[in-house]
Design brief:
The protein is α/β, with parallel strands linked by helices. It has two domains: 2-224, YjeF N-terminal domain (Rossmann fold), CATH 3.40.50.10260; 236-512, Ribokinase (UDP-N-acetylmuramoyl-L-alanine:D-glutamate ligase, 3-Layer(aba) Sandwich). Helix content is 41%, strand content 16%. It has a twelve-stranded mixed beta sheet, sandwiched between helices. Strands 4-3-2-5-6-7-9 form a seven-stranded parallel beta sheet, sandwiched between helices. Strand 2, helix 3 (62-76) and strand 3 form a beta-alpha-beta unit. The two termini are 18 Å apart. Bound molecules: ligand NAX and potassium ion. K(+) binds at residues 63, 131, 170. It holds the Pfam family Carb_kinase. AMP binds at residues 424-428, 457.
């Protein structure tokens, strides 16, 4: 999985490289500027055809330093440059100052003026607008500095204007992807060495446009401890190909608990997801009164009657049941509360979704009984009921950066509950009690907005359950299920209904050669 960094982690990587003597700040800045120009030309090849005009907005830190390098490199290609600096040249940090001076010997540095810059953006004369105002050091909103420019860039971008953010769109929090106030929108964000968390969560993707990662010569083989993983396509480990000769029991047995009559659809969706993702067997455990309804709908999924907790406990005497799913359409009455307690007491890997999360939130000690083989799959509302203090911090407008992020929220929720927590969204955030964290981003070229449809979460719960049943550890099962779920949705496309998701999985697996 690719790494997503915070600004502090990136600073530490740069500092290590400099301490080892691999590169100095000036070299990194030069490579950063070169990377930006190369990425712009790769993104918009028509910029290669003859000299163009660029508007370059530089800020008071090293992000501004990158901007001066970009201005110089474009001017060397014959481009016409209008450059504005927010801040005083003599207060620039040393590398930025050197690049300022070298640009100043070639062209003009105009003092920042929001209205003038906005007017130039709106004139449409620039072939490229470069935002090097603030990068990873942006610590608060910039509406008062660049509000008119942000509005003009928004219109410019919407009309197809080429707006490029150096490292991060100014005003966007690198660590949380949250709008600190007045973010400058970009069509392309060129970041360095590794992508940042803020580009894949919260408001990040709305402002970044697309992401390009420029190599600035830092060691690619050094992993960053504590980095957040960007969930990518699962490897062969989840496929069945490696297990030729295995029988259905070697692929696990998932047990999905259903609600009463008229409410069994959600559990049936989850069960179908568990079966399609590769659990060897899937049984639906429904109350006696719902047996006929379920039997009318099931073929490969098996059916057992479970009315009270004693039935569940008796069923779980069979050690071959390797994972449970509780929540979809289950109900929140005393029977379901007792079933949840019995399921947790069994210690089996379990997915707790929907009504199971409501039940947890209703108890005095919501996290009691949870363990490291549990996966909680809340959407934002369910998360807020379980962890109201964390949700409140996420909802509050951030006064300063780094702002509280969805990743910090799930890490805290996971540490508190002792379970893996998967907070659903286009930017699904996943954390394990040991501190590992990942983002699954159905964003950019993996966007699947049609996934927001009734029953889609039930299928996701089923996919996690199926992978757990097959023996995947909880954190990995959650991450892999999120990827498969979104990929299945992308394969079906607009018009998708939840029933389509499990049935799209064979094509997903075939494409992955699993
Ligand atoms: N040698 C290095 O450290 C390298 C840094 N790089 C660039 O350096 C950037 C980070 O540089 P810095 O740490 O200097 O940070 P920034 O350039 O993002 O900005 C920091 C400056 O802006 C001020 N500031 C922050 N938010 C403000 C706000 N809302 N209103 C007014 N002033 C505000 C700060 O007080 C500080 O003076 C990266 O994003 C990247 O573009 C790259 O050149 C690669 C090498
Ligand atoms: K920027």
């Amino acid at each position: 999985m690719a790494e997503l960094l915070t600004s502090a982690q990136m600073r530490a990587i740069e500092a290590d490289a400099m301490a080892r003597g691999d590169a100095d700040g000036a070299t990194l800045m030069e490579r950063a500027g070169e990377g930006v120009v190369a990425a712009a030309l790769a993104e918009w090849p028509d910029l290669e055809a003859g000299p163009k005009a660029a508007l370059v907005l530089c800020g008071p830190g090293n992000n501004g330093g990158d901007g001066f390098v970009v201005a110089r490199l474009l001017a060397e290609r014959g481009w016409r440059i209008e450059l504005f600096l927010f801040g005083a040249p003599d207060r620039l940090p040393p590398d930025a100052r050197r690049n300022h001076d070298s640009w100043a010997s070639m062209g003009r540095v105009r003092p920042w003026d929001d209205e003038t810059v906005a007017g130039l953006v709106s004139s449409g004369d620039a072939d490229l607008a470069v935002d090097a105002l603030f990068g990873s050091g942006c610590s608060r909103g910039i509406g008062a500095i660049a509000g008119q420019t942000a509005a003009a860039l928004d219109v410019f971008r919407a009309a197809g204007g080429r707006t490029l953010a150096v490292d991060m769109p100014s005003g966007l929090c690198t660590d949380s992807g949250r709008d600190l106030g007045g973010v400058l929108p970009a069509a392309l964000t060129v970041t360095f060495h590794r992508a940042r968390i803020g580009q894949f969560t919260a408001e990040g993707s709305a402002f970044c446009g697309r992401i390009a990662i420029a190599d600035i010569g830092l060691d690619q083989d050094v992993a960053c401890p504590g980095a957040v993983a960007l969930v990518e396509a699962p490897g062969r480990v989840i496929g069945k190909a490696a297990a030729i000769g295995g029988h259905k029991y070697s692929h696990g047995h998932a047990l999905v608990l259903a609600g009463g009559p008229g409410r069994t659809g959600a559990a049936r969706l989850a069960a179908r997801g568990a079966l399609r993702v590769g659990a060897g067997l899937v049984t639906l455990a429904a109350p006696g009164a719902a047996q006929l309804e379920c039997a009318c709908h099931l073929t490969a999924v098996m059916l057992r009657a479970v009315d009270g907790p004693e039935d569940l406990t008796a069923l779980l005497d069979d050690p071959r049941f390797s994972a449970l799913c509780l929540g979809p359409g289950m109900g929140t009455g005393p029977r379901e509360a007792a079933l949840l307690a019995a399921a947790l007491a069994s210690g089996r890997p379990a997915v707790l979704d929907a009504d199971a999360l409501r039940l947890l939130a209703k108890t005095a000690e919501p996290v009691a009984g949870l363990h490291g083989h549990c996966v909680l799959t809340p959407h934002g509302g369910e998360f807020a009921r379980l962890f109201p203090d964390l949700a409140e911090r996420l909802a509050a407008h951030p006064a300063r950066g780094p702002a509280f992020s969805r990743i910090e929220a799930v890490r805290a929720a996971s540490a508190r509950s002792g379970a893996v927590v998967l907070l659903k969204g286009a930017d699904t955030a996943i954390a394990a009690p040991d501190g590992r964290a990942a983002i699954h981003a159905a964003l950019y070229d993996r966007a699947a907005p049609w996934l927001a449809t009734a029953g889609s979460g039930d299928v996701l719960a089923g996919l996690v359950t199926g992978l757990l049943a097959r023996g995947r550890p909880a954190f990995e099962a959650a991450a892999e299920a999120a990827w498969l779920h979104a990929d299945a949705a992308r394969r079906v496309g607009p018009g998708l209904i939840a029933e389509d998701l499990p049935d799209a999985l064979p094509a997903v697996f075939r494409a992955l050669d699993l």
